[in-house]
Amino acid sequence: MNEVTLFSTCLGEEFFPGAVAAAKTVLNRLGLQVNVHKEAFCCGQSAFNEGMRRDATELAARFLDAHKPGTPLVVPSGSCTSMLKVFYPDLLAGDPALLEKARELIPWVHEFSEFLVNVLGVTDVGASFPHSVTYHPACHLLRELHVVEAPRKLLANVRGLRLCELPRSTECCGFGGLFSVKFPDISAAMLADKCKCIEQSGAEFVVANDGGCLMQMGGGLHREGSRIRVRHLAEILASR
């Protein structure tokens, strides 16, 4: 394997371009040629979650036209990876042609940390980050993809990094895509609990693999005047 495609995702392109660039840097350092794919920048997850299946199907069709099986498709987002691997078969069940395209592509789709650890067999990327860090496992990454150990193995091998345990780590941060918009009070209460746990960890940085979680937690910490900053896992792994 010497070539991969990196799917930048909507939130990555709009809010976390540094995370996309960092993922590309890490993959390049491992000897891979990386094509950053921006032609179909939305997988349709937001529309699907809102029940707008026709719109979601149109976005899925565009995505599947742009991405072909044969080259690993690396995604720096647990939620977008889940959409492609777990929810496309549901969304496209009524369209046999699109469903077949999805089934052909799914084996080539990999979440970023899972690709590094389970496909490349790499747990040490030569990173250095002399700070205390706590890790938030994003809901889709944990519950849909069952990726538990890969991010922690990668963080454990970052030189100078001190990993602080996050109390009640598996609790949702309250983002949930449109959930945070439709149920703002519930979302805010969940975020307040998460921010308290992050503060209790004693870390300087909170790390996650999903732009939605980073945006939610970063906003909450900023509004509280916290000095704790958010980082995508790829940004930590690209640091030297």
How would you characterize this protein structure?
The protein has 13 helices and eight strands. The chain has 240 residues and is an alpha/beta fold. It folds into two domains: 3-118; 124-238, Rossmann fold. It has a four-stranded parallel sheet, sandwiched between helices. Helix 12 (211-223) links the parallel strand 7 (205-208) and strand 8 (229-232). It is globular and about 50 Å long. It starts with a strand and ends with a helix.
Outline the secondary-structure elements.
Elements: E1 3-7, H1 10-14, H2 17-29, E2 33-37, H3 45-49, H4 53-66, E3 73-75, H5 78-91, H6 96-105, E4 109-111, H7 112-119, E5 132-135, H8 139-144, H9 149-156, E6 162-164, H10 179-182, H11 184-201, E7 205-208, H12 211-223, E8 229-232, H13 233-238
Parallel strand pairs: 1-2, 1-3, 3-4, 5-6, 5-7, 7-8
Helix pairs in contact: 7-9, 11-12
Q: β content, as a range?
A: 5-15%
**Could you say how many structural domains there are in total?**
2
* Poorly predicted spans: none
What is the H-and-E element order? EHHEHHEHHEHEHHEHHEHEH
- Sheet of most strands: 4 strands, parallel
Structure classification:
alpha/beta
Strand order of the largest sheet: 2-1-3-4
Q: What value does the Rg take, in angstroms?
A: 17 Å
Distance between the termini: 25 Å
Could you give the count of β-strands? Answer: 8
Mean pLDDT: 95
Cα shape: globular
